[in-house]
Specification:
By secondary structure, the chain is of the alpha/beta class. It has 21 helices and 28 strands.
Length: 646
Amino acid sequence: MALGPVGQELANLQAWSVLNGRQFILLVEDNTEARWGLKLPDYSDNPHSKYNYITSPDPSLLIPMIPLRVLIVEDSEDDSMLLVRELKKGGYVPDVLRVDGPESMRISLESQQWDLIITDHNMPRFDSKAALGLVKESGLDVPVIIVSGSIGEELAVEAMRSGAHDYIMKDNLTRLVPAIRRELREVVVRHARREAEATIRHMAYHDALTNLVNRREFEHRLQHAITSAKHRGRTHGLLYLDLDQFKIINDTCGHMAGDELLKQLATRLQEQVRDSDTLARLGGDEFGVLLEGCPLERTYEIAEALRQAVTNFRFMWQGKPFTIGVCVGLVTVTSDNNNVDEVLSAADLACYAAKEQGRNRIHVYTKGDRDLAQRRSEMQWVARINEALENDQFVLYQQNIESLNGSQPGHSEFLIRLNDGAGGLVPPGAFIPAAERYNLMPTLDRWVIHNAFAHLSELRHAGNAGSEIEQRIHFINLSGGSLSDETLAKFIQDHLRQYELPAEMFGFEITETAAIINFTEALELINGVRELGCRFALDDFGSGLSSFSYLRSLPVDYLKIDGSFVRSILEDPMDMSIVEAINGIGHVAGLKTIAEFVENDAIKEQLQRIGVDFAQGYGIDKPHPLEDVATKNTSPQKVRVSPNGS
């Protein structure tokens, strides 16, 4: 082939050159003929990232030249040369190694990477089936093509089932290059699919921000640890880490700063744990560490190393340094543990204990932390109560109070309930203790007052139930926390005016215990509310009989007899006598009596014989939602009250 000026220049340079802004590659064959080629950016048939092209000076004859690493399993050197020639004719630049036995093939598979394996079918003491077995044993994903002078249809099918990608007869080598191109494309597709699947698997089990194991995978590994502890007697350590002061960085510098801190800190924490351990981001600024086969003493040492690493960590953001601490909850995973939730709950509780004790410290979980668990549960209820107030998730129920002598109308009591978000109700006994401990009851009391007044206003102004409603007293419970609220009487007065309701319709209840403990405050509130025209009742009366002396000083209108005595008056003479005494003293003091927990007609009839004025309980009426007492022309509006009562 005659060379033009460009080709001759390349032949003289015999090196990489840049001509007219394009990159060329020099290829020399037998030092006799030089060809020049243009390096193109894309060629769909080529599985490699670099592409070499050769041509004559006529650019229209452009032919791709593709490097190819080929392992030929063949005992005939002549047949091997025929294969190489066919590859070159097809546009490949083959880098070839020929082997003819199992040992040399095994060494070649282990020592080099191959794009293609071509194997003969029949060789002395070696055949294509054995060659395919070695490829499978190596675990390599390399196309294997059988090229044979004699192979029957059945043997060919068996070879394909054993892992061969194609078989070609030596007298029909024109099929070789198309088969190679097809299989190399398939390799690229398979590799891309595997990489995508690996990426998806990694994303499913790892945290996107820190690249640590995520909570799902951490719980999976923890379950394995629990199983090994139960069945093999192994002991593991679990650490629950919660960063201190992280919220300050998020709030002052933004979430980008918080994310960067978490990434840097994850790297720092990873340096402190063993390769066999699992460090995970459990969510937010919380991390978990599973220390497999680690006794308590060693677990504590690692926990301390992690705590020190966090304490010594200096985070810089926009030139400002920040320091943080960490609380660590430590739990030993043994055969006593039952499930993942139990272990993680204990670790979380221990971490919470570390916070309670002053932060930036380690707390080892013990069974004596049960009281702490109760407080933890109550604190969780605080958030739930505030959320329910914000999202209008509390609802009012009402329970009728029946007159036992028939000479006066019955009354009712408003009761608060909480929607559980799944169509059910949370009983007040679940959230009231937390509300009392964390001083949320005054807010709930005001919510009940606000909504009860609005509901009764709706009914009264509907016009068809007003007189009946006004004849009844509607009782509302007040907590001990509300007794010290100096503005509560004013709040009630404002609502009476706002909803244009007569004060005589309402009665307020406080428990006997709350009244005695907060006697001065209770007296002031009772007087203030009764001056408005509302009634007052002492609830749960009789739980402490020493309180009889207070009746002279507390200007109440009703006594609600403690249900713990009422429910057993038919079986217990002592309870019967107590109920009779409370009823008698109440009447002497000019008060009406209401028996609580009236669960059946027999108790009701006995209370009538005693002379109790009213009865309340499941035997009289079960609490029901307000909609049950609304008429067709009314629909109680949803009203809300903020924590300050507005």
